[in-house]
Amino acid sequence: MHITGPTTFDEVLEHFRRDHSVALDHEVNTNQDADSALRLADATFGTWSKIRLSRDDVRSVLLPWHLGCGGGRELVPRTGLTVGQAADLLRADDAGFRAANPVCTAKVDRFRTTPFTSIFLTTRPIPHDHYADLPTDDGLVHLDGLHRLLAWELSGRLSPRAELPARIAGDLTPLAATANGGTSGTPTSDSAPNVTTGGPRI
């Protein structure tokens, strides 16, 4: 994870709405739900940062409860799955998930070849029913971008390097300290090669 610096909630909302219109005409448009989740995250955490994610970072993002866009098969249980775990489930039974959850899998297919756009995360679950049974350890927790994350992982487009842009709400210090061998303070390139600060802004 590459931390590029702080940002504001106004910038987060502007960036989100540019790429994810609540009026977009497609089946089961959940962009209004995502807009509400962003506002709840801002009210809960109050601080936002810009980061870049590697493939390993993306696979570790914790997804909340997801019923498959109204389909017949639960994709993510209430206790959550990481992007990596959910992608592995889809790989293991592609035909079964397509038959049970046609809208959900169509969304994943739609994003397989689209340009990367920002993902929105938090460092802990937000106070919302869909997140109520998730573990509360510090980590990368999904707010918006589930279908895109799964699509890009399944299509093999994610890089081992930190290249996928994201906005994240919450205190990054615990994450940086964990990646820094459990010590506090700002990580450096020598002590925490997978978490860096500075560099080009997203």
How would you characterize this protein structure?
The protein has helices at residues 9-19, 31-45, 55-60, 83-92, 94-100, 102-111, 146-154, 173-179; strands at residues 2-7, 48-53, 62-63, 81-82, 119-122, 141-144, 164-169, 196-197. With 202 residues, it is of the alpha/beta class. The chain has a six-stranded mixed β-sheet, sandwiched between helices. Helix 4 (83-92) packs across helix 7 and helix 5 (94-100) crosses helix 6. The relative contact order is 0.22. The model is unreliable at 179-202 (pLDDT under 50).
Order of helices and strands: EHHEHEEHHHEEHEHE
Helix tally equals 8
Oligomer: single chain
Instruction: Kindly state the number of beta strands.
Output: 8
Mean pLDDT: 83
Shape: globular
Radius of gyration: 16 Å
What's the arrangement of strands in the largest beta sheet? 6-5-7-2-1-8
The class by helix and strand makeup works out as alpha/beta
How many strands, which pairing sense, and closed or not: the largest β-sheet?
A: 6 strands, mixed
First and last CA, distance = 13 Å
Query: Uncertain spans, ≥5 residues at pLDDT below 50?
Result: 179-202
How much helix, percentage-wise, in residues?
Answer: 25-40%
Fraction of residues in β-strands: 15-25%
